[in-house]
Write a structure and sequence with these properties.
homodimer; 376 residues; TIM Barrel; Lyase, Ornithine Decarboxylase, Chain A, domain 1; 2 domains; 9-stranded mixed β-sheet; 10 helices; elongated
């Protein structure tokens, strides 16, 4: 938590749950990527947090945007982004949405199937297209394979057909999986992409861009490999696999730009024991899976917590949300411990909560409003 | 799908995804419960669908309401419900929310822990309280144990202390689990509740109400036991376990009141194969887990689907939503088959989609709006 956020929380009587984002942290994260991967064009993954304050800041700093939908594209344009810096990176698009994006000036589209490529050809003639490759994502906390990406063979075949469809075969993308804590998948994915670049180059088809996607991990409850190490691995892998012919590089970080900028302040609603003989307490917060903590599904993202009594004697807890739904339990097996003195009305801060919290909140399940947001 | 909904969908050029609810079906479902369990006071579980049209209709018909939060209570009051017909049935409540509910005239509160009972005593003196018992919920598609309910011993102990706290020990509630397809849990739960009634009665403490909760199943893709059979089991179990001393009965159906009233119309965004050698197609709809189909988590609720080509040759599909998130896959293992002719732009109707779809939609993950709603 930055001093700015701490002061804001201390000086304002905010209704909980609320998210406070320090925009300076976002700018620092952006500049850090520029320093560590100077050759990479950044397309911020808008879905991680599409707040106008964030898009304005990143647009002014020169970032591009990875948009998942027409509304996201419109938000980026409203933030002042030139259309040329917006990539429509969702591989699943309605044809009329492709047409609308094209009207708005978007000329860069992702695909991972023959059928999607045909839609882009019909609705966005002459555009640049890049093919999403399915790659190894073991080691990721939130894997992204299965739903997205095609095989190397299919990627090559589809890119070969692009010119006949009136499209520019522009490059390859992949995604090693969100919150990827292993360095190897980046190397393997870059190697696989390079094979396709070489194969097509030998046939006279020169791809121009390699999009490394996102997946850069951030520290939640556990340490993660430093961004320096991941970017060093990427630089080394690019040299290893592409030699003197490194293509234009793009990255699509989302979590790594916004997560650590935000703190969610919550209130303890109830502390109870299911059975007096069991030491484990149930701690119910005023935010849960339906209010913004969607990424606690399967206890995947384990947020670090701060309480007013940190340092005092702790005991095991189950952490749950405030709704009448039994799936609204965040952590039951992850070994969370909280102070024994914790009681209703105490405030708990959830750290590094700036990513995938605001937009994954439901419109009002059980009558609870989505988390309030403050950008400072 | 009722003729009214079919006509509405056919005659209106609605933007998909959209939910169309036939209010007549809701009224029929309400009357059916009144017919099958005439002795039961109904508290509609607002969380299932809190649309004002539904609350107005049920309030006018004489139903009560099971509210999970102050905003839900306010919605019920706005629909004309007398406060005496509203139960604050969430066992997890902020003390100031209890106080606010009390100010609004609510005098019936659920609890399942000593700590919650103390909050109710402090903020809603003299109120009626009922204790939620943890009961067997195997057989339920969406079990509700774990997070809620206490042991029989603890329930008895807590109800005994209520008078000393200035509260009226009013009764017992349980919930056999949502979409419960086994008849036995109702019988067992009623039997367990009756033991507590008898035990306390022997000490001179006469509980007045048994709240059977919800869990009444509705037919999705598979048949479920008819409501007649479930209600017959309940009537028999009440006679068996309570004899001549059957208490006031309450029920809290939500899903069983609204699910079958609604159809979600969706559009196919993409049909693709991950690999040409695999027969399985991926079918991406314009609604998914983040847009209202939250209950497909773990493939728990399996909706019945209708396509324009029903009856034609079918093949296996994976059904996924439109976002860039890999968890946004509804059905991968449930054996769904759809027509081979299916292509982008086709409309698919999701049947019995009136419950837990509107409020579990996210505020706009990936820029996609929550499902549009029509109440006819």
């Amino acid at each position: 938590m930055t001093p700015k956020v701490a002061n804001f929380l201390a000086s304002s009587a905010l209704t909980t749950p609320c998210l406070v984002i320090d925009l300076e942290v976002i700018e620092r994260s952006f500049l850090r990527f520029r320093e560590l991967l100077p050759q990479a064009a950044m397309y911020y993954a808008v879905k991680a947090n599409p707040a106008p304050s964030i898009l304005n800041l990143l647009s002014a700093a020169g970032a591009g945007f990875d948009a998942a939908s027409v509304p996201e594209i419109e938000s980026c344009l409203a933030a002042g982004s030139p259309p040329a810096l917006i990539s429509y990176s969702n591989t699943i698009k309605k044809q009329r949405d492709i047409a609308r994006a094209y009207e708005l000036g978007i000329k860069l589209f992702a695909f991972d199937s023959k059928e999607e490529l045909a839609k882009i050809a019909a609705a966005a003639p002459g555009s640049r297209v890049f093919c999403r490759l399915a790659v190894e994502s073991s080691g990721a906390v939130w894997p992204l394979d299965g739903k997205f990406g095609c095989s190397s063979r299919m990627a090559g075949d589809l890119l070969r057909t692009a010119p006949d469809l009136g499209l520019e075969p522009y490059g390859i993308s992949f995604h090693v999986g969100s919150q990827q804590c292993d360095l190897v998948p980046w190397n393997l994915a870059i190697g696989r992409a390079a094979m396709i670049f070489r194969e097509l180059s030998a046939e006279g088809l020169e791809l121009k861009m390699l999009n490394l996607g996102g997946g850069f991990p951030v520290p939640y409850r556990s340490e993660v490999p430093p961004l320096d190490d991941i970017c060093a691995t990427i630089r080394t892998s690019l040299a290893q696999h592409f030699g003197n012919r490194i293509p234009d590089i793009a990255i699509e970080p989302g979590r790594a730009i916004v997560a650590t900028s935000g703190v969610i302040r919550t209130e303890v609603v109830l502390v109870s024991r299911r059975d007096e003989s069991v030491p484990e307490r149930w701690v119910y917060l005023d935010i849960g899976k339906f209010g913004g903590l969607d990424e606690t599904a399967g206890e995947a993202i384990q947020y670090a917590l701060r309480t007013p009594a940190d340092g005092q004697e702790c005991g095991p807890v189950v952490l749950a949300g405030p709704t009448c739904d039994s799936v609204d339990v965040m952590y039951q097996n992850a070994g969370y411990q909280l102070p024994l003195s914790l009681c209703p009305g105490d405030q708990i801060d959830i750290l590094a909560a700036g990513a995938y919290t605001t937009t994954t909140a439901t419109v009002g399940f059980n009558g609870f409003s989505p988390v309030q947001q403050y950008y400072i």
